[in-house]
Structures are given as structure tokens and as C-alpha cells.
Amino acid sequence: SQTIHQWPATLVQPVGSPLSLECTVEGTSNPNLYWYRQAAGRGLQLLFYSVGIGQISSEVPQNLSASRPQDRQFILSSKKLLLSDSGFYLCAWGRAGGAYNEQFFGPGTRLTVL
Amino acid sequence: KQEVTQIPAALSVPEGENLVLNCSFTDSAIYNLQWFRQDPGKGLTSLLLIQSSQREQTSGRLNASLDKSSGRSTLYIAASQPGDSATYLCAVIADSGYALNFGKGTSLLVTP
């Protein structure tokens, strides 16, 4: 069976500090990978997706970046955090070969920027 | 731009009741629709996926229907239990084929 891991579970960072959130998937190969953000009072929004190693697409302009150094690893980064980066960050995966396949979500990382 | 709306925003029912959660979307050209459950502070659990060519999907006490032409989906929960208390999210795949467009959810409380 497939599992998806995210860490850390919670993070409190000062404004201007760097960020690195990690997501890994087990039990599948060449998955589509996604980063979503759930901000207070707002719906979930797709930030980035990847269909393969080194292939990153951004859905919205922002202060964040993503990388996929390995097949089942997806990293969300920032060089300098803003207050508006606070939120609940969710990683998701979907089976390769179809953009329209079901998406499965990880446990999330709660980020608070002070 | 695809807009997804969920009604009601919150719902409280006594245990044992059957209930319906509603989801509507503005662009009927969707590829699929997915229903999720989110417990407080947790990630999303996928409940049901309905492909655009399908009318409904069932899993246990859950039944989801899809009417693409009218831009609507409903999630029916039979014989509700306190353990069903959570936020239920509806999402549709956008034209890009990758982004799930989410509604803001229905917060459900089932009281014993």
C-alpha cells in the first residue's frame, strides 16, 4: 500500500527566515506530486505540482519554490518567509499516467510565521 | 475561473439521521469530482471519486452523486454517527488537469 509522509508536523519561524518542508511517498513509482496550502478562512489552493524528477509547475506567483530531487521526494522552500506564508501545507500524490486521477493527501505541516 | 461552493457551511444533526451535503461548481467541464473528509488539524482523507462520465459512487454509508450539466454534486451520509463529525470538502479537477479546486467545506457535527 502507498503512504505519504510530511515533516515537520508543526513549525514556528520568524519573518525573514528560510523554510524547507519535506514530503515523501512510499509504495508507488513516478507519482504526480502536489503542494497545497490551506490558509485560515480560505480554501485549499494548489501551489506546485510535479510530474517527474526536476519537473516543477507553479500555479500561483509567490514567495515559495519547490523541488523534486528524487522520484518520491517533494520539497517546498523559501529563502525569506513572510507573515502571509503562515498556513497548513499539504502534500498530495496521484498515480502517474493521468492528470485526472484521484489525489491522496499527507498529514500536513502547520507553519506559523511570527 | 472555476468556483466551488458548499452549502451549508455548518451542520449539526443528532445521531442516526440521514443527511445531505451539497456542492456546486460554475464550470461544468470538469474531469472528475472528489469528496474528502478533514478532521481538525489533520490532512485530507479521500472518501469518493466520481469520474465525469459517472453519475454516482458508493462507499459504505456514503453515496455521492454528480450532475455535470447542472454543476452539482451531493454527498449523502446514511445513519450518521458521532465519528462522522468532521469537515467535508468537495473538489473538482480544473482545466489544467492537475489542480483540485476546493470548496470551503461543510463542518458537520453529529451529536450523541
Can you characterise this structure?
The complex is a heterodimer of chains A (114) and B (112). Chain A has 114 residues and is mainly beta. Chain A contains no helices and eleven strands. The N and C termini of chain A lie far apart (38 Å). The mean pLDDT of chain A is 92. Chain B has 112 residues and is mostly beta strands. Chain B contains no helices and eleven strands. In chain B, the strands form two sheets. In chain B, strands 2, 4, 5, 9, 10 and 11 form a six-stranded mixed beta sheet that branches. In chain B, a hairpin with a 6-residue loop joins strand 9 and strand 10 (100-102). Classes of the chains: A mainly beta (114), B mainly beta (112). Chain A binds chain B through residues 6, 32, 34, 36, 42-46, 49, 57, 59, 90, 92, 99-100, 102-108, 110, and chain B through 4, 31-32, 34, 36, 41-46, 49, 51, 89, 91, 93, 96-100, 102-105.
Please outline what is shown here:
The complex is a heterodimer of chains A (114) and B (112). Chain A is mainly β.
